[in-house]
Amino acid sequence: MLLRIATIVVLIVACPASATAILLTATFEGTVSGTIGGSPFTSEPFVLTATGDTADRVAFSAGLDFGFDLALETAVIALPNLNGGTTLAITSDTFLRVNNSNSTMGFTDDNFVSGIFLADSEFNTYDLGSSVDEITAAGVSSELALFNTDGGDFVFADGSPTLMFTAVAVPEASAFLFMGIVTAVTLARRRRDREQQSA
Q: What is the pTM of this model?
């Protein structure tokens, strides 16, 4: 399946030289099948919002692979239609990883194998800290990518979700407000689209 990705890392608000950290807020939106605490669900819309401090980016090099990792401070997945709305805080260690050598980027666990990955030549030089224009890319989720959450283990079992991805860098003081606004707008847009489809 084709994975639609919009990556916009924009607008680092001016602040004093001793300023707060710059947080990168990444949002994945799409449809996924899997399980939560062993209970299966199929083709549910979801919004995954994750935040990390860009100062924590680490370059990696392993054999022929090289790129950047960003440890995430928070990761929350919302499934607005599941059981009247389900929101889970991911408690396992998670990362954004861009692999410049094979042009992939993903939301992944601490073994950098399981998660959601997408491929596009734009990622040849991306460093998890610069702007990226909207792109469309093929992507997959690793089969049985498992993340611990406060509501039980969350397993991505859908091999090829269709996703929209955005990432925005903002000063830390503004990041949590921004993350809430992004999530609210995304969920409202989803609700409006569902209402238009049912009309």
A: 0.71
